[in-house]
Design a protein that fits this description.
Elements lengths: L4 H5 L8 H7 L1 H4 L3 H14 L8 H10 L8 H13 L3 H16 L2 E3 L4 H8 L9 E2 H4 L10 E3 L7 H16 L5 E2 L1 H7 L3 H10 L5 H8 L6 E5 H4 L5 H15 L2 E9 H4 L5 E2 L8 E15 L3 E10 L2 E7 H7 L2 E5 L14 E2 L3 E3 L15
Parallel strand pairs: 3-13, 7-10
Antiparallel strand pairs: 1-13, 2-8, 4-12, 5-11, 6-8, 6-11, 8-9, 9-10
Helix pairs in contact: 2-4, 6-7, 7-12, 10-13
């Protein structure tokens, strides 16, 4: 549970000094002595004061993580005060992104019923002819369905967290929790990434994020769908994807071009080229299953994060049209890295509203 500055020092105490308040946050925000000293220097040069209210946590985090440290004092003071006190569209968005990390965080339960709801719409995924990794993989079936949901918006981070948890389940047959994204932001995210997210509403690469959070030397087997389903090599590439899905488990689907028909509504099946329209952004999901349809041929099951569209099936042609990169985790993952042990969520269902667009990393094919 989040503890405000006032709660940490008691409601009857005087307003704490910035030094007292920032040191009280050291463990929950992963602050070392040098970081605290730099924060105190920035705070002193800006001439701010704590007010012993809910806004103090927002002020503290901005300075604790040295956001705007390369701006002028005047620029920083204006940007921070506008974020916290100005209610125009731009600053409301910035404040909401900051509060999602500091105030709201992840909400969690052990309820996992979205797949049952999907099967009611598409019962062909409930037959022995279909393959669903979290149901049919010899080890991962002991873990079962894991879920991450948000109300709306494109996000590149949920996919990587889920694929990591599934990869550990494929290796161990156990569930040891998922990375808590809000805690990751509070404790481990870089200053530049926080600035990009909070102030610029910029996202990042799901592939790079997955490589960053994996244990041991990460090895990804990548399949590029712009050539994957070409008629010349379709059968061989298709067989490779199915082999990898059964061997390595769910794959990261990155750089997925979200078109208008996919982004709007609750449609759960997308087939053919004709549905590919205007691209509204890039997205990341997880490839979790495969079946063969009498009409559309190969169908691929993607696990998504939108509350109204947690699962979607696409045929090979539609997948080729959206041109994602499919990355399987080939290196055995037996645990979440030790540096993230205190930033994990023990529940099988987590919700966090993050709108972080998928971006193409440079030299993706290397």
């Amino acid at each position: 549970m989040r503890r405000s500055v006032a709660a940490l020092f008691g409601s009857v105490r005087k307003v704490p000094t910035f030094e007292e308040a920032i040191k009280a946050k050291a463990s929950v925000w992963n602050l070392d002595a040098s970081s605290i000293e730099a924060s105190m220097s920035m705070w002193g040069s800006d001439g701010n004061r704590l007010l012993n209210d809910a806004n103090d946590d927002l002020w503290l985090f901005l300075y604790a993580k040295h956001l705007g440290c390369d701006w002028t004092t005047q620029e920083r003071k204006e940007m921070f005060r506008d974020l916290i006190f100005t209610n125009n569209t731009k600053n409301l968005g910035r404040r909401q992104r900051l509060e999602a990390i500091i105030v709201k965080g992840e909400t969690s339960t052990n309820e996992t019923n979205t797949f049952e709801n999907f099967l009611a719409k598409s019962p062909k995924w409930n037959t022995s002819e279909s393959y669903v990794a979290f149901r049919d993989h010899p080890k991962l079936k002991h873990v079962g369905l894991l879920e991450r949901l948000q109300n709306s918006g494109i996000c590149y981070m949920h996919a990587s967290v889920l694929v990591q948890a599934y990869a550990i389940g494929c290796a161990t047959g156990k569930f040891e929790g998922m990375l808590d994204l809000a805690a990751f932001f509070r404790k481990h995210e870089t200053r530049q990434a926080l600035e990009n997210h909070i102030f610029q509403d910029q996202g990042g690469s799901s592939t790079r994020f997955l490589e960053n959070i994996l244990d041991t030397d990460p090895q990804l087997v990548k399949r590029f769908t712009d050539v994957l389903f070409h008629p010349v090599n379709f059968q061989r590439e298709r067989d490779d994807v199915l082999r990898d899905l059964k061997q390595y488990g769910p794959a990261l689907v990155s750089q997925f071009q979200v078109v208008e028909d996919f982004h709007v509504g609750e449609q759960y099946a997308h087939t053919g080229k004709t549905e590919c329209g205007k691209v509204v952004g890039l997205h990341a999901m997880a490839l979790v299953g495969h079946r063969v349809d009498d009409v559309h041929g190969d169908m691929y099951l993607l696990q998504n994060w939108w509350a109204n569209k947690p699962f979607v099936e696409v045929d090979a042609e539609y997948l080729h049209c959206c041109q994602p990169v499919i990355s399987f985790v080939a290196s055995a993952q037996t645990t979440i890295p030790k540096r993230f042990k205190f930033s994990t969520n023990p529940h099988r269902h987590a919700e966090l509203q993050l709108s972080l667009a998928e971006c193409m990393p440079p030299l993706e094919r290397n």
